[in-house]
Specification:
Length: 392
């Protein structure tokens, strides 16, 4: 196992100032913190590890986002720890490399080492191109990955050679061998996205959800997020009045409350093994609003992790009620599963394909009751058809 401390610098705890509450359990007191006063900690039993990445060399129109990790910590540390059984560590910041590729390599190595130990890396960027490093961590393990981005754009770029914080996805798509099973975008804003890009995403069988739809149907975001191995959250997806700290700030977007709800959905997803928060630029913040929102999003993510309920189905799983539906004109039966404990819905997409080892983690697809109701009305759910094409 690689020694991740080689890639990390301690938290400069003396530079983080906040009000303390006597006798209260603030995160500053309950976190295991790698600081200059303490040697690199053992991570046995740790569930979530915070990693800062002060990197912005490929940031597009957002110079200053490299200062986000320390800035967010200042708002995070005073919050209260409500999870006595959740062990959380702050392992400091990735050492900036001589080249940006050095930083990408270091981040991928640290994330790979943590997820191999079932520790969830909570990455505070830095710019959005760091998502590529998170993908590389899964690639290094030869593991198919579902990436979900909460972002007003697709970050796909104009051509395959373009690479920066708004054009990292093309490099992931073009990588060979490729371990990207699915990419999902939540919150894209149509007026910022070329119609050809929307068509391309759909042709690639990627899952894209407009801001307006999700805001009107927030409960539909839960099964979408439940399918992700990794979630990246661009703070630019939040409206500017709630999160002004971004060089490409938008008047429209998710509210702060909705952002926290999405972060909690991510934490509750037992499949999710990495979470990243990017593009926060302290230079643009007003009254530290974005720092406080980012800290609260992290708090809600941790709350979700602490309250995870394992209910991913297995074959012949008695914990689930099974519903079989025939849709007119469709040869395959649609099999829906509902957890008897949580009430969450899934689709069984195995269809006799269990022998395909590389897809075994993809056979049970999170869905909503609306998908089941659509099938009852002889309407093939888009989610079912999309995954059917991928698996076949």
């Amino acid at each position: 196992m690689i020694d991740v401390s080689l890639f990390l610098e301690p938290v400069e705890i003396e530079n983080i100032r906040f009000k303390t509450s006597a006798g209260q359990n603030q995160l500053a007191n309950s976190l295991i913190i790698y600081s200059e006063q303490h040697k690199f900690p053992a991570v046995d039993g740790v569930s979530v590890a915070i990693i800062g990445v002060a990197e912005e060399r490929n940031a597009l129109d957002n110079t200053g986002c490299m200062h986000a990790p320390a800035y967010v910590r200042q708002a995070l540390y005073p919050l209260f720890d409500h999870w006595p059984n959740l062990l959380i560590a702050d392992l400091g910041d990735i050492r900036a490399g001589n080249s940006i590729d050095d930083t990408y390599f270091a981040l991928s190595q640290v994330v790979e080492a943590l997820i191999s130990q079932n520790i969830i890396p909570l990455v505070i960027g830095g710019s959005n191109d760091l998502v590529y490093s998170l993908y590389q961590a899964y690639e290094n393990q030869g593991r198919l990955v579902n990436i979900l981005a909460i972002d007003p754009l697709f970050d796909i770029g104009q051509d395959e050679n373009e690479f920066h914080s708004k054009a990292y996805l093309s490099r992931i798509i073009m990588q060979q061998p490729n371990y990207l099973f699915n990419f999902t975008n939540i919150g894209y804003q149509n007026y910022y996205v070329d119609a050809k890009a929307v068509e391309l995403m759909k042709n690639l069988l990627f899952d894209v959800w407009r801001l307006g739809f999700i805001r009107s149907n927030m409960e539909e975001a839960e099964p979408v997020i439940r399918s992700a191995d990794m979630v990246s959250f661009d703070i630019g997806a939040v409206r500017g009045c709630d999160a002004p700290a971004n060089g490409l700030v938008n008047p429209n977007g998710f509210t702060g409350e909705e952002a926290c709800r999405l972060a909690r959905y991510a934490g509750m997803n037992e499949k999710l093994s990495c979470f990243g928060l990017f593009e926060i630029n302290p230079a643009y913040d007003t009254h530290e609003l974005t720092a406080k929102l980012a800290a609260q999003m992290i708090w809600y993510f941790l709350d979700g992790v602490a309250n995870r309920i394992p209910d991913t189905p297995k074959h012949h799983d008695t914990r689930f009620a099974q519903y079989i539906v025939r849709v007119e004109g469709q040869d395959e039966e649609l099999i829906f599963l509902k957890s008897k404990k949580t009430g969450r819905w899934w689709m069984d997409m195995s269809m006799g394909q269990q022998h395909q080892e590389k897809y075994k983690r993809q056979y049970f697809v999170p869905c909503s009751k609306k998908d089941y109701e659509s099938a009852l009305n002889d309407e093939l759910p888009d989610r079912w058809w999309q995954f059917y094409q991928k698996l076949m």
